[in-house]
Design a protein that fits this description.
By secondary structure, this protein is an all-alpha fold. The chain has one domain. Helix content is 70%, strand content 0%. The chain is built from eight helices and no strands. Helix 1 runs antiparallel to helix 2 and helix 5 crosses helix 6. The protein is elongated and about 45 Å long. The relative contact order is 0.12.
Length: 151
């Protein structure tokens, strides 16, 4: 890997592009929702980490190690927030308290499953349904555990 291709450079480039984008729109007088911009950056960072490629939390931890600690903390908080949102939204379905058959995973695997959904990125996260979660669980189509990247 060339020095200019380092993981840290990829993340700095993402932040720079969002900063430039934000400045241009502010200069033109078009309002931007700061929270939406921050979410776009964080989802882009998850995309660049590419969890689905090899499910290697060690590789991802190495890539995150070149970032400023505040950036890693922000990304960790974002991932935790998205996992909590999934848990809240689908807990009843997981436990079978929504009138359905439940999602056949235990506590630990449930955490792995919903972390994996976040690790696959924004598009996958936004498309998840109870049926998709059930199918992922039934087919063991999830890996342990995207959350280890942030420990």
């Amino acid at each position: 890997m060339f020095a200019w291709d380092s993981p840290g450079k990829k993340y700095r480039k993402i932040h720079r592009n969002i900063f430039i984008y934000n400045r241009c729109f502010l200069y033109l007088g078009i309002p931007i929702n700061k929270q939406d911009m921050e979410e776009q950056v964080l989802w882009k960072m998850i995309e660049v980490l590419n969890w689905k490629r090899d499910h290697s939390y060690k590789r991802i931890k190495d890539e995150l190690s070149v970032l400023e600690p505040d950036t890693v903390i922000e990304l960790t908080q974002f991932v935790n927030k998205k996992v909590k949102e999934l848990h809240k939204k689908y807990e009843a379905a997981w436990l079978g308290n929504d009138g359905g058959p439940g999602i056949d995973v235990g506590d630990d695997s449930w955490g792995d499953l919903i972390h994996d959904v976040v690790g696959r990125g924004e598009t996958f996260y936004n498309s998840i349904t109870t049926e998709k979660l059930r199918e992922m669980a039934d087919n063991y189509d999830f890996e342990e555990s995207f959350c280890y990247c942030f420990l």
